[in-house]
Design goal:
67% of the residues lie in helices and 0% in strands. The protein is mainly alpha-helical. It is elongated and about 65 Å long. α1 crosses α2.
């Protein structure tokens, strides 16, 4: 994973020149914060494995109906 989450000096300067100094700095800071959040999401991502793979859809509907009617 990348450790450089910010924009280069040249990219920041180009933003400031084209959209104004204050707006360019704001956009660059937003991009940096978003990149940091994405990196955090990548680190904390959890893969989910189904407990019973390939369950029968009709049977699942029957079980749901039984549970809703509370007739065990």
């Amino acid at each position: 994973m990348s450790t450089n989450l910010g924009l280069s000096y040249n990219a920041r300067k180009a933003l400031q020149v084209h959209v104004g100094e204050e707006a360019g700095a704001e956009i660059a800071n937003l991009i940096q914060r978003m990149a940091a959040q994405i990196e955090e999401l990548k680190r904390s991502k959890v893969n989910v494995t189904p407990v019973v793979p390939g369950g029968d859809q009709h049977r699942d509907q029957d079980v749901a109906a039984i549970l809703e009617s509370e007739s065990f």
